[in-house]
Amino acid sequence: MTPLPALELVSLMNRYERPLVRYAQSIVGELDGARDVVQETFIKYARGSADGAPALVVGDASRHVESWLFTVTRNGALDHLRKHSRIIPMPLPDDRRSECASPDEEMANRESAEWLLRLLDALTPNQREVIRLKFQNDLSYKEIAEVTGLSATNVGFLLHVALKKLRELLHEAPLDSVPFRIRTAL
Question: Which domains does the chain have, with CATH numbers?
Answer without folding.
Answer: 6-83 (no CATH), 104-178 (1.10.10.10)
